[in-house]
Design goal:
By secondary structure, the chain is mainly α. About 80% of the residues lie in helices and about 0% in strands. The chain folds into two domains: about 1-190; about 190-280. It is built from 13 helices and no strands. The relative contact order is 0.08.
Length: about 280
């Protein structure tokens, strides 16, 4: 799928989620199908995710999709309806796509200035757009944190509902993966209070997480926490207020995650997961 087609598909999805009209199930299903195709392409082709990552329109679209879902949840809450389930699945697909695209941007940020300039020239990309994307990370970071906070609240409320709790847990994991990628690139954090709030929720949340999902939650959460602790102002606030300590998250999530990795047989974890645990063990 061409980059212009991907952008058009994202725009259609954004308008679909923004619409106040009754949306037919087949419209959601088609949007989900298109998102799955783009997900596969951006997972396997680095040039696709890199080119998408330089588009400010794409980042604005991600921000709009996530923020509109925040607004939907504020108005309607979590309901066991076809529309809610399809809508949440579609938003999760877009968050996963944003996760892939953020990998593309992080790949570009690892290049030298001359290599980035060469990439821009070869792909008809404005160099200013490449540099400006980082400023948009702040918006996506904020709306994703807000959505994650709401998902945690709703998961706890609906944890006895197997279908809803499964959908919400998968969405939480996807959000964390996106957040851990976003914060891998240094940018200006705007709302420290929201980060404190969400990390505080996770400290209390562990007892609600199914054992089968503990590893999936723990790894991106620890990555995210480690990334934001590279922000000097955030660390200073932590030292002054003692509102949140990295050791709390580490004790709550890393130790059990490491224990899972140590006790699983060869089929329990993928090689990638084992490698990731080993990195944090060092």
């Amino acid at each position: 799928m061409e980059i212009t087609q991907i952008k058009q598909s994202l725009d259609v999805t954004s308008k679909l989620l923004k619409s106040t009209e009754v949306t037919k199930e087949n419209q959601f299903e088609e949007a989900l199908r298109q998102t799955a195709i783009i997900l596969a392409q951006t997972a396997s082709t680095n040039i696709s995710r890199q080119l998408l990552s330089t588009s400010k329109d794409v980042w604005y679209c991600f921000e709009s999709i996530i923020d509109d879902h925040n607004e939907y949840l504020r108005k309607h809450g979590v309901e066991k309806t076809d529309e809610f389930i399809l809508r949440t699945r579609l938003v999760r697909g877009c968050v996963l796509l944003a996760r892939n695209v953020s990998v593309g941007y992080n790949e570009l940020m690892m290049l030298s200035t001359s290599e980035v300039r060469l990439f821009a020239n070869e792909n008809n990309v404005l160099l200013d757009d490449v540099n400006d994307v980082k400023s948009l990370y702040v918006m996506d970071d904020q709306v994703t944190l807000q959505l994650t906070s709401k998902y945690i609240e709703e998961f706890i409320t609906n944890q006895n509902n197997v279908e809803l709790s499964s959908i919400l847990m998968n969405a939480i994991v996807s959000n964390l993966q996106f957040l851990s990628n976003l914060t891998a690139v240094k940018f200006q954090i705007k709302n420290y209070g929201l980060i404190f709030e969400v990390l505080g929720q996770f400290n209390k949340f562990k007892t609600n997480i199914p054992t089968s999902q503990l590893f999936n939650v723990s790894l991106p959460l620890i990555r995210f926490t480690n990334n934001i602790y590279n922000d000097e102002e955030f660390v200073n606030l932590c030292l002054k207020t003692e509102t949140m300590k990295f050791s709390d998250i580490f004790t709550t999530y890393f130790v059990p995650m490491r224990d899972i990795a140590l006790t699983e047989d060869d089929n329990g974890l993928s090689e990638e997961q084992k490698d990731q645990v080993e990195v944090f063990n060092q």
